[in-house]
Design goal:
The chain is mainly alpha-helical. The chain is built from 5 helices and no strands.
Length: 137
């Protein structure tokens, strides 16, 4: 079975869409995460991993701004939260990679040996981002 991050990696192939999600969230509509059947299928496929990541980030279902009408509201908010969390992380990683590329490309013109390190949010090594997430669950 595919993990939640692998499923999201497969679904999102452009940084522009992830930037939109990071800025605006999923409420405006994100293909594949709109209809009840899509949200339920994604949630039930990745429920344990989603809850583990929520726990790692001290997020409870009650923190997800749910109107508490039914279980579908919780499922929707949990899936939208993980998609936005993933988008935030990917945008941050992309910005760090661009900063590092820029710094390395210009290092010799500014100062020999200049490097710029931009680490992902709460991770030691951005190349091991998915492994770090998976290992904590």
């Amino acid at each position: 079975m595919q993990g939640v991050y692998e499923a999201l990696d497969e679904r999102f192939d452009t940084i522009d869409e992830l930037k939109d999600i990071a800025r605006h969230g999923c409420e405006g509509g994100v293909s594949g995460f709109i209809y009840t059947h899509e949200l339920r299928e994604f949630f039930y496929t990745h429920e344990d991993e989603i809850e583990c990541i929520m726990d790692d980030n001290a997020i409870k279902y009650s923190d997800l701004n749910v109107n508490h009408e039914n279980i579908q509201d919780y499922i929707t908010q949990a899936v939208w939260w993980i998609v936005q969390y993933y988008a935030d992380q990917q945008v941050h990683l992309n910005e760090c990679e661009l900063n590092e590329e820029y710094a390395l490309a210009n290092a010799y013109s500014f100062h020999e040996g200049l490097t710029l390190r931009c680490l992902p949010l709460s991770y030691d090594n951005h190349t091991n981002y998915h492994q770090a997430q998976a290992s904590s669950c």
